[in-house]
Write a structure and sequence with these properties.
The radius of gyration is 41 Å and the shape is elongated. The longest helix has 20 residues, at about 1-20. A hairpin with a 3-residue loop joins β10 (about 155) and β11. Helix content is about 10%, strand content about 35%. It is mostly beta strands.
């Protein structure tokens, strides 16, 4: 009888010990509580939200009047690839170092881009130009008009006077690509030549207002 009571007692004690082992540890007893689910990141925000980076607004140039050439490079001494007409706009992808010219798709040929002046009375620019990356361009190929006659020639537009053949220093000048006309100043401002100038061209005026022909 005694042995049976002892066995029951031992079983009872063992049951108590096992139950005690399964009890949760009290808070503050040197162990930290562990949440059932971990937060998405250290700040408590989702990883998707944490990776969002604000983007700058697009830089758009709008032509308000007239039209502007879209050129091969950032400057008037480059050939025109096309033009933007009044009311048209274009989104820039780059700028020159000073932010004076914007790199935009050529109207009618979006696979090609060129440069349009951002600081004219004919256009408005929205967005932060300085946020655009800077893009370089090769230097333009210079274009010239030379006077090979003995009469002074006025080149328009531009109001540039080319001196006669006898003046070696003033009879040749560099011009931006475009359309020009030469006028003989010794023969009542008679037009002697129409010129369509492109990068790399060098055009000679060889006939004066009296129909005399010369060579340089």
């Amino acid at each position: 009888m005694f042995k049976r009571s002892l066995s029951v007692f031992i079983v009872f004690v063992l049951a108590l010990v096992l139950a005690a082992c399964n009890l949760p540890s009290p808070v503050g007893a040197g162990q930290a509580t562990v949440p059932a689910t971990l937060p998405p990141d250290a700040t408590g925000t989702s990883s998707a939200a944490a990776t969002l980076v604000p983007t700058s607004a697009a830089v758009v140039i709008t032509i308000t009047s007239e039209s502007l050439n879209v050129r091969r490079g950032p400057g008037i001494y480059y050939d025109a690839l096309g033009f933007l007409k009044a009311g048209q706009n274009a989104t820039a992808s780059a700028r020159d170092a000073n932010g004076d010219w914007l790199y935009v798709p050529v109207p009618g040929n979006p696979s090609i881009s060129g440069w349009v002046s951002a600081k004219t009375q004919y256009s408005q620019v929205s967005g932060d130009v300085q946020s655009l990356p800077v893009q370089s361009a090769p230097p333009p190929n210079p274009a010239y008009i030379r006077n090979c006659t003995y009469h002074p020639m006025l080149i328009q537009p531009g109001n540039v006077l080319l001196k006669p053949l006898t003046d070696k220093s003033g009879r040749k000048a560099q011009f931006a690509p475009g359309d020009y006309a030469a006028f003989d100043q010794n023969v009542s401002n008679t037009q002697v030549l129409t010129i369509q100038l492109h990068e790399g061209d060098s055009v000679d005026i060889v006939t004066d207002g009296l129909k005399n022909t010369y060579g340089c």
